[in-house]
Amino acid sequence: MSLCCGVECVVIIGFARWVWKRCAHISGNDSANWTLVAPGEFEPIPRMCRLVLAVYETDLHNPQFSPQHGYRLNPDWVIKRVTYEQTQGRAPPYLIYTDHEHKEIVLAVRGLNLYKESDYKTLLDNRLGMQMFDGGFVHHGLLKSAVWLLNAEGETLKRLWEESGKEYGMVFAGHSLGSGVVSLLTVIVANHRDKLGGVPREKIRCYAMAPARCMSLNLAVKYADVIHSVILQDDFLPRTATPLEDVFKSIFWLVFLCPCHCRGYLCLSSCIQILTLVNLVEWVTNYYLLNQVLVLCTACPACCFWFV
């Protein structure tokens, strides 16, 4: 009897310690050993953030949600702005912008709209191991959205790149849901560059803010040179396990039924989750904004362990 009580006490103490460490884990722990990024490498990120934010505006000549120093873009350089009505829910709203100052053609996609059922349908259109692509696994719903976006705007992007003398870079930027769409769009374009007129891989870039998980680890490593994710401090989204449907199930179990079942979705060891190829992760090149100090982790699969 005393032995059983002793074992039970050890288990309880051990579990309490594990819960405390898990709950006390902060963003500073993730990047404690990372190096500071060069200012020149970070320079495009604020621009991409402003462009993604500009997608939310209905009229860029008379903006309603302008950041403190404005969008710093020329509204006359906006080639196209597409709304939910035009996409019919097959992709989030987006805009195409030709940045002649920085010689870039940018496709920026907005984030999740909590009032749009179509966005939830895109997120929940996935199951573990449902969609294979390029030797790995990707999010089925986000891939469908990316394919639709490429079919809809491929000719426009190709024309703009050829009109620029094939000198401009091709940049895809997105936030939250949009980050998943543009990242998979980047993967497709990197494999089928002829669809955009043969744009070289070194001219392709993707910037994903608050990245959603959409590809398996082997693909994250493979495309780390073109896809860059930006994480702000303790942002929960990059740490949320996929598929997102499992998170909703976990919350249901947590509140109404069995906390122990919830642990299987939310509290598993990162190492256990990352070992399976079909689990989806964000990207391996990560820019981590921490108390206004930027750190960088490049092509280091180990860093993904912290984000599961």
TrEMBL record:
Domain (Fungal lipase-type) ranges: 106-242
NAD is among the record's keywords: no
Gene3D superfamilies recorded: alpha/beta hydrolase
Domain Mono-/di-acylglycerol lipase N-terminal, residue spans: 7-71
Key words, A-Z: Hydrolase
GO BP field: lipid catabolic process
InterPro entries: AB_hydrolase_fold, Fungal_lipase-type, Mono/diacylglycerol_lipase_N
Source superkingdom: Eukaryota
CDD domains linked: Lipase_3
GO MF, one annotated term: hydrolase activity
Name of the protein this chain belongs to: Calmodulin-binding heat-shock protein
